[in-house]
Amino acid sequence: MTRTAMSLAALVLFTSFVMHGQGSHLSKLDGGQLNQSDIDATATRLINAAHVTGLGLALFDHGQIAYSKAYGTRDVEKKLPLTTDSVMTSASLSKAAFATMVMCLVQQGKLDLDKPIERYLPKPLSEYPKYADLKNDARTRKLTLRILLSHTGGFANWRGFEEDRKLKIHFEPGTRYAYSGEGIVLAQLIVESVTGKSLTQLMQDSLFGPTQMTRTNMVWKPEFEGDFANGYDEYGRSLGPERRSSPDAAGSMQTTVQDYAMFLSALMRNRILDTRTRGKMLSPAVNIHSAHQFPSLSEETTMANEGIRLRYGLGWGEYLSPYGKAFFKEGHDEGWRHLALFFRDGRGILIMTNSSNGEGVFKPLIDSLLGETAFPFDWEGYTPYDKLPPLPRLKEHPKVSLTTAQLSRVVGRYKLPPDIVISVTLEDGHLSIQENDEAKQELLPESKDDFYSAVSSDECSFKPTGGESAQVMVLHLGDKDLQLARIP
């Protein structure tokens, strides 16, 4: 899909919206006024200029949803408009919802934020296969839910980023901030062990049901098929939807702009947590002095954000804006870029996009619709679209045709310990590759042994070479090669 075609497609607007407040106007943080035409013109201009496929937007006033609308498309090929009810992968917005659910259990007296997590488990943490790498590390005894939810556990974001791909603790738990999906997944293990319920059921009982988030779940549901969004990469290539089958507190939640806006509204108005418990969740647990959020374990520090008192609570970032305390959570996955930002007085914004270009509109959109908020855009790595360097040209691969027998030799399942399984399947003469239960990608041959993704920069090879069935998949990740062995 060319960028010109994407821009034309992005002109399609979903026309249902709500607008409340002073007549047909909304107040910006600085007292300026917005009307519907202002919002539409700004959103449309930005998604076209930044090549964002689709964008869902909600604005809040006194904790109420004051405006909700979707722009652009959810399926470029079929020319389907994005709607406020289109199901999207929430990425790390899942973490904030999960933390809120945990606080519901804290409020009910079922969990203690400061109790060592190993006291909740029926056996030592290192006896769980996924955490065997932590054997003999006494620091696991210091881990608590407060530490895990505030990203101070000492883990990398994901163990896959480690040189040896093993889980390890890098610093004394509770002493510094380092964003970690691993920590959130560990918290999920604790919560499921204590309650005896799956995360899917816990989120439905504590959050989705009470807030009437009827199009939200931690896994894919058949009823989502009628209105869902594909994710799109920086070049406008469709990555499809993420039909997750396993709940993951760090990022599997499927939701809509309208549903997540209802969650934020309920949270701001103390409809989910009482005032005291919400205060615990949104109180600072750790000061942030890292120069940037990522790479999460970088030791580069700065005092540049001390003026806004950049901190992290439990599942939420926070800072001091010119209009009082502000709270935020971002979502970042291939094809999905989101941001939720709200203020103590109940005003705020939710931006959800099905495009890897989405972060390029965050600053200009927030500046235009809210005003100067002092949000730490640089720390987040949110570069405005018009300040980004040009995208590099896509690598050109030779086109090779292989027989069904040649394609069949690489079909199978390949494992990267501890829990990544990549499946290669053959349907109607086309190979597909799928990591765990993420979206499938078509795999194209450039030789009998070397293949590349049709919708990303991923490349892989298979061994042994020749006509024998492949026993090893080699993933080529930049200057690194990772080997995965065939499994039954």
Q: What does this protein look like?
A:
This protein has helices at residues 3-9, 36-49, 93-107, 145-149, 181-195, 199-208, 257-268, 275-282, 362-369, 377-380, 404-408, and strands spanning 18-19, 25-27, 33-35, 54-61, 64-75, 80-81, 88-89, 231-232, 238-240, 254-255, 286-287, 311-312, 317-321, 324-333, 336-343, 348-353, 412-416, 420-427, 430-435, 441-445, 450-453, 459-463, 472-477, 480-487. The protein is α+β, with helices and mostly antiparallel strands. It folds into 2 domains: 3-100 and 198-387, 3-Layer(aba) Sandwich (Beta-lactamase), CATH 3.40.710.10; 404-487, Lipocalin. The strands form 5 sheets. Strands 1, 4, 5, 6, 11, 12, 13, 14, 15 and 16 form a 10-stranded antiparallel beta sheet that branches. It has an 8-stranded antiparallel beta barrel with strand order 17-18-19-20-21-22-23-24. Helix 2 packs antiparallel against helix 9 (362-369). It is globular. The two termini are 38 Å apart.
Strand portion, in percent?
A: 15-25%
Write down the CATH topology of the largest domain.
Beta-lactamase
Figure out the total of helices: 11
The CATH architecture category of the largest domain equals: 3-Layer(aba) Sandwich
Query: What does the radius of gyration come to?
Result: 23 Å
Largest sheet, in brief, is: 10 strands, antiparallel
Fraction of helical residues? 10-25%
In CATH terms, the superfamily of the largest domain is DD-peptidase/beta-lactamase superfamily
Arithmetic mean of pLDDT: 93
How many separate structural domains?
2
Shape: globular
The termini sit apart by 38 Å
CATH class of the largest domain: Alpha Beta
Show unreliable segments.
1-17
What class do helices, strands and sheet pairing give? Answer: alpha+beta
Number of strands: 24
